[in-house]
């Protein structure tokens, strides 16, 4: 008797709410066997790139998801050629494990989607975008209603007041966002770290520590409690 196997997929994991919710929706769809996660780590800081999240917190997220993680270590700054080389090597290893799909948490930036699809098609991977073209305000509400809890770890101070760093992504915060700021931060206005949600077994206990400004990017240092 032949069983139809689900295609194997991995999640492009940023440690933030969009990748977490994309993972959750893909998992709920039942279409894929999600076998791992892929994350870029900035070598100098041992933190998730862009989000500024400590590596030990990323490891805690993987424990909650029950997934193995492939960490792509990149320098800062990272030339695109270096990024693509390191990412390519990591993806080759995943392909060797029979992975055919990669799940992304992008919402509406067509150029980023096109770039991802171009890069992944070169190695025969199919991209999946569970959040694509969902209304950002409704999506933000939906995430929060699902029980997803995330903390803003990085703010672009050109778009948003530094005081938002370290705050919880919640209905009250959404109401305070200035006009023109995407409710999900899709234009890079802010990045988050997920501490709880329907995709996790149990919440990750954290405290928010020091807030620092690095060239206009304001980072809140989230630590294990």
In short:
This protein has 225 residues and is α/β, with parallel strands linked by helices.
Looking at how many chains there are and whether they match, the oligomeric state comes to single chain
How many discrete domains?
Answer: 1
| Biggest sheet overview | 6 strands, mixed
DSSP summary, beta strand count: 10
Alpha carbon gyration radius: 17 Å
Overall description:
With 225 residues, the protein is an alpha/beta fold. The chain has a single domain, classed as Rossmann fold (3-Layer(aba) Sandwich), CATH 3.40.50. It has 6 helices and 10 strands. 35% of the residues are buried.
List keywords for this structure.
10 strands; 4-stranded antiparallel beta sheet; alpha/beta; about 220 residues; 6 helices; 6-stranded mixed beta sheet; Rossmann fold
SSE blueprint:
Layout (H helix, E strand, L loop, with lengths): L7 E5 L4 H13 L3 E10 L4 E2 L6 H11 L3 E6 L5 H16 L3 E5 L6 H12 L4 E3 L7 H10 L3 E8 L14 H6 L13 E7 L9 E9 L2 E8 L1
Parallel strand pairs: 1-2, 1-5, 2-4, 5-6
Antiparallel strand pairs: 2-3, 7-8, 7-10, 9-10
